[in-house]
Design brief:
There is one protein chain. It is globular, with a radius of gyration of 21 Å. The chain folds into 2 domains: 136 residues, Aspartate Aminotransferase, domain 1 (Alpha-Beta Complex); 219 residues, 3-Layer(aba) Sandwich (Aspartate Aminotransferase, domain 2). The N and C termini lie far apart (51 Å). It has a 7-stranded mixed beta sheet with strand order 2-8-7-6-5-3-4, sandwiched between helices. It is 43% helix and 14% strand. The protein contains 13 helices and 12 strands. 50% of the residues are buried. By secondary structure, it is an alpha/beta fold. The structure holds glutamic acid. The site of glutamic acid has 8 residues, from helix 2.
């Protein structure tokens, strides 16, 4: 058989997706497992959103949609970006995608030529470097440090800029660190994009899950240089519906839509009508988001207090639903630590593919009972560790 493409031979499959699939499989086989792997809300999609999907189905809204999304949703997106993010965009400057992932994938395809550099802030979400490489780009890593709360230092970013820098990716609230970047840091990074003429990609998928601090969209500072990416998944517990969206300069948005037209045609039509309900029925959606946020806040506090009590260290996250836990008391490296925890009945994601070495990612998008059980099992692993 002829070989696979070089592109694909160099591709690492997504660690978050793989570990989560493995945890689900073990559970299906009857293994008593607490899974802290899934980067997805454990809540069901709110009823008003499900009802909108049923309505769309009953009305026969079952055909192709335009590649950039149904016009009603693009109008609602322009309104959302104005109302919640202070971004002045027209519907033509918005795009609906198959999850936030397709928005990111398409924008790297639209922006990168071979050899173009993309600055990623380490630890980063596992899919960024792979998507960059699939588009022929070169990831350039700039670290964020636990002692600085994983907030990037604009000076350190500046030192990584070269003549080939095309994109800087920022993700606040952050997966996997939970850091919420202060407004002045995001403004400084947007100023760098303006000064050095590169694109800023702002992945804001965890926008509504902030426990301390406020969300700031850097596109306000550099509108012609910023692609803002978001989606319905995390805010409205709609991960399986696959509705992401983006806004940015019209030419880039158009190119991204053209890529969709040649790959997926359009996101799922029924799911778009459901997302429209989530974005426009403000009263019902706000009540849901507030309920979920308070639950995550309680879970975060429970998990952090529990970890500290048994002597495990983690930087206190201010947003998203992840804790990056230091694995040095558990094993020699994060992969061995994740294996030991799995044997003890807790599935976590090793930090390796996030470039978070010596750490594992715990998702607290799960019930408090599960978190208590996980903490008991962590304590047992610690006790069993040979001194
Ligand atoms: N973003 C989530 C996570 O990091 C979902 C899985 C994925 O698409 O990577 O777990």
């Amino acid at each position: 058989m002829r070989s696979l493409s070089q592109r694909v031979r160099a591709l690492k499959p997504s660690a978050t997706v793989a570990v989560n699939a493995k945890a689900l499989e073990l559970r299906r086989k009857g293994v008593d497992l607490v899974a802290l792997t899934a980067g997805e809300p454990d809540f069901d999609t709110p009823e008003h959103v499900k009802e909108a999907a049923r309505r769309a189905l009953a009305q026969g809204k079952t055909k192709y949609a335009p590649p950039a999304g149904i016009p009603e949703l693009r109008e609602a997106l322009a309104e959302k970006f104005r109302r919640e993010n202070g971004l002045e965009v027209t519907p033509e400057e918005t795009l609906v995608t198959v999850g936030g992932k397709q928005a990111l994938f398409n924008l790297f395809q639209a922006l990168l030529d071979p050899g173009d550099e993309v600055i990623l802030l380490r630890p980063y979400w596992v899919s960024y470097p792979e998507m960059v490489r699939l588009a022929g780009g070169v990831p350039v890593e700039v670290e964020t440090l636990p002692e600085e709360g994983f907030v990037p230092d604009p000076e350190r970013v500046k030192r990584a800029i070269t003549g080939r820098t095309k994109v800087l990716v920022v993700n606040s609230p952050n997966n996997p660190t939970g850091a919420v970047y202060p407004e002045e840091v995001l403004k400084a990074l947007a100023e760098l994009a303006l000064e050095h003429d590169f694109y800023l990609v702002s992945d804001e998928i965890y926008e509504h899950l902030i426990y301390e601090g406020v969300h700031f969209s850097p596109g306000r500072v550099a509108p012609e240089h910023t692609l803002t990416v978001n989606g319905a998944a995390k805010a409205f517990a709609m991960t399986g519906w696959r509705i992401g969206y983006a806004c940015g300069p019209k030419a880039v948005i158009r190119a991204m839509a053209d890529i969709s037209s040649q790959s997926t045609t359009s996101p799922d039509t029924i799911a778009q009508w459901a997302a429209l309900e989530a974005l426009t029925n403000l009263e019902a959606s706000r009540a849901f988001v507030e309920m979920a946020r308070e639950a995550y806040r309680r879970r975060r506090d429970l998990l952090l207090e529990g970890l500290h009590r048994i002597g495990l260290r983690a930087v206190r996250p201010s947003g998203a639903f992840y804790v990056l836990m230091d694995t040095s008391p558990l094993a020699a490296d994060e992969v061995k630590a994740a294996e030991r925890l799995l044997q003890a009945g807790v599935a976590v994601v090793p930090g390796t593919d996030f470039a978070a070495f010596g750490h594992v990612r715990l998702s607290y998008a799960t019930g408090e009972e599960n978190l208590r059980k996980a903490l008991e099992r962590f304590a047992r692993v610690l006790e069993a560790r040979p001194q």
